[in-house]
Automatic annotation (TrEMBL), chain A:
Pfam families registered for this protein in UniProt: AAA_3, AAA_lid_2
SUPFAM superfamilies: P-loop containing nucleoside triphosphate hydrolases
InterPro entries (alphabetical): AAA+_ATPase, ATPase_AAA-3, CbbQ/NirQ/NorQ/GpvN, ChlI/MoxR_AAA_lid, ClpA/B, P-loop_NTPase
Domain AAA+ ATPase: 45-189
Name of the molecule in the record: AAA family ATPase
Highest taxon above the source species: Bacteria
């Protein structure tokens, strides 16, 4: 259903490029079509992404493949307990001549060309580091060496595993709210994909695997422009506006919306969250999805396709329910979509 | 209180031994009883005392005698009062008293029922005036139930009279009302079961498409054009939602048909419907939507789905 007006040839070309990008990543990371689609949406919505999942499901491989496909400068750091914000900004050492040297750290090394900043195991870093990251994510800038560095094309990808809890620091709500999406990754269910991953030696060497991805499928310099064009080109009718507002209301106040979950006091379930920024992000991501589907108007399916990843981490539950979050929030979101009428 | 028999027996007109102003205020006390004699042990004795006072007076209720024992042989069972205006403009207070006589008489004799005072009051602007009306003592004639020296019997049990025969009660009305109550209870139970979807009512499916069609036909009278077309699409949406128990979006159609195979016959029409609905609501293309699924077609689809849900 191609309903994009022919005048928007640029958007059409870019959609083809996005499809090529998805195919290229899909060759390296099998069985993760949904995660790849969501990452593509995040790239064109200019949003930061958090990947969450078990160890060894391919989070890092996926992000490396995406960084390669995206082109542009790429930096990667590993979160540790003793990491300090300054470690990201500069690096000091004694040179061969015995004089102290100060060199830019991972964030500043590539200067303004930095397009992908990949933060591995983000929950191992301390809150001080999270605070710096918050600034980088929110404003795409950082102050260092008496000047301000700007990263117009920067996209932050972070991952964390949800197995360990010792020596980890939960991200503050404000930092989590800055992530466009939190994508949960699981090992593929498909039997063939599983066999390939285990027996095909191609998947064992991740360095070679990511190198197979065609470099720079997307022109990272122009993604900012095209992202703005997408947001302007995709229309939202009043019906979809009221649908989104209805979803928002039902998510924050599930009790009055008539949602009942077994064994849960719906009046006390949701403490807060689902910020206006979060809902704006939701529409932003949904517009990109509509564009990828070849439409220039939003439909409820666009909202539904990105809703769990964009909204789930923005809902804060009462402490009694917080421990069972992984089970309650998906149920709540499913109930919200089963309750709010569209159109 | 039962009305007294028509032949009242004038008993007494008491000139009251009270002070001069009270005399002026209480005009007279009259006692009426149905009969003055022929009372046996256990009989109820009815008496009506009529107190006539000046206008503006009324009875002071606490001054009435309390039901309970009056003498060792007489109990007061009940007192009721009634106030009205007499023909001569006086205020009339009627006391209906019910006594019970427990006197075991060996011969016929007259016994005196004691009198009692009753206070009447008139509340004026300068405080209240009270006066006492003395209900006089009066006599009743009591009679024995049996002779003093009864005929000699060999068996002492023969002195006892045989028990009176209880009347034969007709069980028919009670049975009929029990049956009627049972039927009513069963009907109420059925209504409750239907309301709560118990038992067989739980298996009964709703008919959302029939309801949607009905609602749409009602709307048809008030609306037309684009608004009516949208209402038709909404009716179809709500019918699908209610059938599935969740919101069905266009992409959910294959799953929906999987869960409700009865509607597979209309798969193509439903596809057209979802495409038209998308265009109408989200694509700002009402004309395109109407071309894809014209209004009569939408209504007919609603009717066909209603028929399918009935046969499902």
């Amino acid at each position: 259903m191609n309903t994009l007006p022919p005048g928007d040839a640029m958007l059409t070309d870019w959609r083809d490029a996005a499809a090529r990008f998805e195919r290229a990543i899909g060759k390296a990371v099998v069985g993760q079509e949904r995660a790849i689609r969501l990452l593509t949406i995040a790239i064109f919505a200019r949003g930061h992404v958090m990947l969450e999942g078990d160890v060894g499901v391919g989070k890092t491989t996926l992000l490396r493949a995406v960084a390669r496909g995206l082109g542009g400068a790429y930096e990667r750091v590993e979160g540790t307990v003793d990491m300090m914000p300054t470690d990201l900004i500069y690096h000091t050492y004694l040179g061969e001549d015995g004089r102290p040297r100060v060199e830019p750290g991972p964030v500043l090394r590539q200067a303004e060309d930095l397009s992908v900043f990949f933060f591995n195991e983000i929950n191992r870093a301390r809150p001080q580091v999270h605070a710096l990251l918050l600034r980088i994510m929110a404003e795409r800038s950082v102050s260092a060496f008496n000047r301000e560095y700007r990263f117009p094309n920067l996209q932050v990808f972070a991952d964390r595993n949800r197995v360990e809890r010792e020596e980890t620091f939960e991200l503050p709500a404000a930092a989590r709210d800055r992530f466009l999406m939190e994508i949960g990754m699981e090992a593929p269910r498909d039997a063939k994909a599983r066999r390939d991953l285990v027996f095909d030696p191609r998947f064992h060497d991740t360095d070679r695997l990511t190198e197979e991805v065609e470099a720079g499928v997307l022109d990272h310099d122009r993604i900012g422009t095209i992202a703005g064009a997408i947001q302007h080109a995709i229309r939202a009718e009043p019906a979809i506006e009221s649908y989104v507002v209805g979803l928002w209301e039902a998510l924050v106040r599930p009790g009055p919306a008539g949602i009942r979950l077994p064994g849960i006091d719906m009046e006390r379930l949701v403490q807060g969250g689902a910020s206006p920024r979060g809902v704006a992000f939701l529409v932003r991501a949904a517009r990109v999805r509509a564009w990828l589907e070849g439409r220039d108007w939003l439909v409820p399916e666009d909202i539904r396709a990105v809703f769990p990843e964009v909204m789930a981490h923005r809902v804060f539950l009462e402490p009694v329910y917080e421990m069972r979050r992984a089970q309650i929030v998906p149920d709540l979101i499913r109930a919200v979509f089963e309750t709010v009428p569209a159109p | 209180m039962r009305a007294l028999p028509t032949l009242p027996l004038f008993l007494a007109l008491a000139a009251l031994p009270a002070s001069a102003p009270a005399l002026a205020q209480v005009r007279g006390v009259e006692l009426r009883t149905p009969r003055a004699f022929g009372y046996f042990q256990g009989d109820l004795v009815q008496v009506q005392a009529e107190i006539r006072t000046d206008p503006g007076f009324s009875l002071q209720r606490p001054s009435l005698p309390k039901p309970g024992p009056v003498t060792y042989w007489l109990d007061l069972r009940d007192v009721t009062t009634e106030e009205s205006r007499g023909a001569d403009g006086s205020h009339v207070i009627r006391l209906r008293l019910t006594y019970q006589d427990f006197y075991v008489a060996l011969d016929a004799r007259a016994l005196e029922v004691p009198g009692f005072p009753v206070t009447v009051e008139s509340a004026g602007t300068n405080g209240s005036t009270t006066a006492v009306a003395q209900v006089p003592a009066w006599k009743i004639g009591v009679s024995p139930l049996r002779e003093v020296q009864p005929e000699r019997r060999d068996d002492p049990a023969d002195y006892l009279r045989p028990d009176g025969r209880a009347p034969r009660l007709d069980p028919q009305p009670a049975l009929a009302s029990a049956a009627a109550s049972l039927v009513l209870a069963a009907a109420a139970g059925l209504l409750l079961a239907r309301d709560r979807a118990w038992g067989m009512f739980g298996r009964r499916r709703g008919r959302p498409f029939a309801l949607a069609l009905k609602a749409f036909r009602r709307l048809k009278r008030h609306q037309q054009g684009d608004a009516l077309y949208r209402e038709a699409l909404l009716a179809l949406h709500r019918g699908l939602d209610a059938t599935d128990g969740r919101r069905v979006l266009a992409d959910d159609l294959p799953d929906f048909l999987g869960r409700h195979p009865a509607f597979r016959a209309q798969a193509r029409a439903l596809q057209d419907f979802f495409a038209a609905s998308r265009l109408a609501f989200f694509g700002r293309d009402g004309a395109g939507a109407a071309a894809r699924l014209p209004l009569p077609e939408a209504e007919s689809l609603l009717r066909r789905l209603g028929a399918l849900e009935r046969s499902a």
